[in-house]
Write a structure and sequence with these properties.
Strand content: 25-35%
CATH architecture: 2-Layer Sandwich
Distance between the termini: 21 Å
CATH superfamily: RRM (RNA recognition motif) domain
Number of strands: 6
Largest sheet: 4 strands, antiparallel
CATH topology: Alpha-Beta Plaits
Shape: globular
Radius of gyration: 12 Å
Structural class: alpha+beta
Number of domains: 1
Order of helices and strands: EHEEHEEEH
Helix content: 25-40%
Strand order of the largest sheet: 2-3-1-6
Number of helices: 3
CATH class: Alpha Beta
């Protein structure tokens, strides 16, 4: 069961805690990370969230995918580790 989510189109100022808080209303968040550029430290505009269970992850996708967050339209989907390895 996959409870890992890929969150795209994040506003640049979003922190790991902001991301965790955004998803916490759907269940326990085990991990939230805004991916940042190694050199500049600026957000790359996407992040990863791991929910405690698959049901929570599905609810988060249902309510947050294509939702507005500080003027940005989020894209939330299950994280496919097989695709990220290529």
């Amino acid at each position: 069961m996959n409870s890992k989510l890929h969150v795209r189109n994040l506003p640049n100022w979003v922190t790991n805690q902001d991301l965790s808080d955004k998803f916490a209303r759907f269940g326990d968040v085990d991990f939230a990370l805004v991916v940042r550029d190694d050199l500049s430290g600026e957000s790359c505009g996407f992040g990863l969230v791991e929910m405690a269970d698959e049901l929570s992850a599905q609810e988060a996708i249902k309510w947050l995918n294509f939702s507005s967050y500080q003027g940005q339209i989020l894209s939330v989907s299950l994280f496919d580790s097989a695709k990220s390895a290529h």
